[in-house]
Amino acid sequence: MKLQLRTIFLLAFLASTHAAISPEVYWKVKLPNTQIPKVIKDFLPQPDDVLPELKQDNSNIQKKVYYGLSGYIAISWHHAATEEYLRELEQYNTNTKEKAATNYDRRVLKKENPSMNCDTNKNELRQVTDDHPLKQYFLLEKDLEKGKVISFPSLLNKNEAPFLPRQFVESIPFSMEKISEILNHFSIDSGSKDAQTIEKTIKLCEEPEVEHKEKKICATSLESMVDFSLSMLGTTDILAITSEVQGETQKSQRYTIEEVEQIADGDNMVCHKLNYAYALHYCHVGGSTKTFMVSMIGDDGTKVKALSVCHKDTSFWNPKAFPFVFLKVKPGTTPICHFLQDDQIVFVPSK
């Protein structure tokens, strides 16, 4: 027992002095009562890993930037919906309505020609915009009820960027002022898609917080994510939870809600994994929220336990942001919810 206590104190001392301990040990020291989510554990550095930062020439690395499927939609409330996206939505609606109208005409013709193949639903004209991929990311709290059928894209994000130890990532610049140095470090062509992604991600991270309403950090390491969670939630009794997916396909599909469990009501911290050269998370606390675990089953039999965060105060969101455009509500009038893909982590006090 004495040996065990001595070991714990030693680890705590090492952590407090930022000595070279692994990210996993750092988590266990700082958050001793919090289980490490699988989506973090799977991408932690292993003892035999060769870090890109230690290579003399990393031009032979297969992946220079890691991409997820969701982009930045879940944190899009900062900005007005761009003209490009609004045009895309309008064109999508036009094309789908034309298709629906055509199918409606075919149903009429089918009465005259019973052999004609037509599988269109009679409500197709009215529901043509409900399955738009951007709209599916947002919903109202009243939609989180047992038996409700909703459409949603894949909850698998597929961003496989590995975590790197803090002592390595802190030696790499992370700012637009040093963009050339960053691209050179990772051997990325300045005219490439990867370079555009690196630039977009850094610009997002350098955007100012919403004063008195939001606290955020782009955590370049697991250690900085842990430190930020402790400073924001003010306790070491923390749950770190993620969505869970069993056998999901990549396509959008309909899900039937089987159970809705409220996990927390109050402050939480959410960390969204961004597209970058290593594991980078946009972690933020932004007003009071409700956090739910929603058990659903897809049309293809996929079972998911999806985290949904409902923002109770949207008064400080951009009034032309995606959620208001697609849900047709105004800021501050009703809670707005969104599901989180499986590599996005919610931190909430456990007591």
TrEMBL record:
Q: Which residues form the BURP domain?
A: 138-350
The record's InterPro entries line, in alphabetical order, gives:
BURP, BURP_dom
Supply the alphabetized keyword list: Signal
List the signal peptide residues.
1-19
The answer to whether keyword Signal applies is yes
Q: Out of the domains of life, which is the source?
A: Eukaryota
Protein's UniProt name:
Burp domain-containing protein 3
Native species of this protein? Nicotiana attenuata (Coyote tobacco)
Please name the taxonomic classification of the source.
Eukaryota, Viridiplantae, Streptophyta, Embryophyta, Tracheophyta
